[in-house]
Amino acid sequence: AVTIANSLDVAKAATQLSRWDVDPQMKDVAFAPDGQIFATALSDGTVMLWPKAGGKPVGIQCLPSAYDSDVVAVAFASDGQTLAAASQEGIVQIWRVSSGGDTRTISLPTKGFAVENLAFAPDGRTLAVSMAKGATVLLIRVSDGQPLHALNPKGAGIVNMAFAPDSQLIALGLQDGSVQIWNAGDGTLRGGWQLKQKGAPELAFAPDGKTIALGLQQGELQLWQIDGTLIQTLNSQTKAPVRPAFAPDGQTLAAARLDGTIELWQTSDGTLLRTLDGGPTKGRTSLAFSPDGEALVAAWEAGAVELWGLPAKPGA
């Protein structure tokens, strides 16, 4: 049997372990599956690897010198040894983490549309890349870099996306304020719903695969079932775009806001547990929990990385 620590206790005990200020803009962040390192995507074309324990970077990866481009997204595969980064101009670079050697460079058919997001399916077999304005998501087979499907949702604008934990579904958030659920295996549309607010919502699947958190442009944080049933709306006094991330146990939901704060919410009853404020940081951010739930990292667009520690959950 495992005893789960109360979410309120976890939130109160959160402490900032490290903060790094970096000159280039931060675009994305991802934790490795082993939880020992995390990667940040920088606007100067590099990917930096950081230790969970805090301290200096433990590695730097760069896009090939032939491509002078921002790194806009970064993701680890489930094997923990494969790291992918996407440039705005449509270059996806895949590295082996242990050796730092590159294994593949994929040039995407962007047709002038900038790459916006990148995500590995949890099983590590498929890589999804979304492109701004074109509202297109490409599903790519990781083993050989070949395209599998192109998802072309109805609704122009930026596409935010998130894979379900079982890798079978992928959720898309569109600029017209709609959410669509697609089958990742065959690229067919499964369903969706329309939000009252315009703007592409940020998405995060809960660990159970049945719940999706939506961060809306006007500042609301909503929990939905994948069949389009609204569970609850979490309101904050900050009316600014919000980016959500679930803790691995699904009991806590983190939400980063443009004012540089991170809210911790209890998903069971919608209680705001604590607001983390690590310093003078503003702008968009990317959030990631460590796999053990003991750390939360935020990479702020303004050029700061914050690592927050959460207490270990006692076991029996």
Could you describe the 3D structure shown?
- The chain is mainly β and 316 residues long.
- Helices cover 2% and strands 50% of the residues.
- It is built from one helix and 28 strands.
- It has one helix at 7-12, and strands spanning 15-21, 26-31, 37-42, 46-51, 59-62, 71-76, 82-87, 91-96, 102-107, 115-120, 126-131, 136-141, 147-151, 160-163, 169-173, 178-183, 188-194, 202-205, 211-215, 221-225, 230-234, 242-246, 252-257, 261-266, 271-277, 285-289, 295-300, 304-309.
- A four-stranded antiparallel β-sheet has the order 1-28-27-26, with no helix packed on it. A four-stranded antiparallel β-sheet has the order 2-3-4-5, with no helix packed on it.
- A hairpin with a 3-residue loop joins strand 7 (82-87) and strand 8.
- The longest helix is centred in the first third of the chain and has 6 residues, at 7-12.
- The protein is globular.
- It starts with 6 loop residues before the first helix and ends in a 7-residue tail after the last strand.
- 44% of the residues are buried.
- Residues 1-11 have low confidence and may be disordered.
